[in-house]
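Q: Give me the 3D complex with zinc ion.
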Amino acid sequence: MSAQLHITPRVTIPDFLVGEVQSKLAYVDESIVRAHVASTGDRITLDLREQAEDPKRSELEEKVQRVVTSMVQGAFKPKVQILENYLDRPVPSSADPNPELLARGEMFQEAAGIFTVGPLVTRLISFFERQFIALADSFGAAPYRFPTLIPAKSLERVGYFRAFPHSLSFVTHLREDLDAIDNFAQHAACDEHGLNTPVDSFAKIQALLSPAVCYHLYFALADKPLPGGKLAATAVGNCFRYESVNLASLERLWNFTMREVIFVGPKDFVLQNRETGRERMRGFFEEIGLAYRVESANDPFFIGEFKKQAAFQSAFQLKFEIRAALPFKQSTLAVGSYNYHQDFFGRSLNITLPDGSPAHTGCIAFGLERMAFAFLSQYGLDAANWPDAARKFVA
Ligand code: AMP
Ligand code: ZN
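A: Here is the predicted complex, encoded as structure tokens.
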């Protein structure tokens, strides 16, 4: 039996934080299957797995109040900077692509946040990839291939556990122990909640699934001078962010793919390339008639770190998102981002420039599934209606 719990937050949630608070409420308690914050910020509705009685209700309410207070109290509205605005570009479709993607076998859900895409979407992604690689080439970016696993100690070194604990995905293996392995082989079995295993089956965690692409480059450059004093690089890779009940179609995946163009060097080198990259992408988005805008944003830091870190990113203009229109839901979706990390990775990982100072870093990142999804939301699945370049590529 499902149930709802309504909560009036002790402090009203300002409109610029409604989305952030709502997405964080998913992590408050395992009994929550959906969380909704009213746009007025004065009412929270939780859909629960089952009816909750006291003391569970009070415990839930107290946890929710803690999240709201921590994220809202003392927060100030960031100045949203809009660098490009082409949201009113006319596009031919306003239909939800999901039903057709499913019906045509172009999208298959293996589990929440885990999707296979079919030939048309794959070709469309290759079309975008060709463009992103051309962008990388325009900077003479060196190609890299990074692993899907990322060592726990590397993530620890860059403070990832404190900043984004909620979205981590852990990797382990069975302990090297004959009895443990035999025991697992005989008793491991799935139920509707997941895999049940004998206690004490698993080894200590050494690796996680990588949440981003560019980190691997910084780890490879750590603890030495940066050869040549500057570097442009590019790579595509699987990325993993556990988004709990916020997982939704191709819009929000647990396992997605990111193409990055990465810059390491002096401050001006990184900032100028980030800007040049944006200008070049503006031309491409015009060519394919994408409705989007580029605006300042912040990363989805967890509750305790959120206020401070988001304000910092905003004050120093560290992150800009490419938000494409999703006409079928009158909203936008971040399909990419232009990022500047200052000398954070240079300092944390001891990557030095010829003058001995820490290197600055930045990256241009594209979410491939989201890029395709936003395009299909604006142009539909019939390639005959697509802009020339895209139509010819998939023909
Ligand atoms: P970020 O490093 O957070 O700016 O992410 C870069 C890009 O990756 C975003 O602009 C999205 O297009 C994509 N992305 C991030 N998280 C997800 C997700 N959970 N599912 C699908 N795409 C994502
Ligand atoms: Zn990056």
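A quick observation: The CA atoms of residues 132 and 259 lie 7 Å apart.
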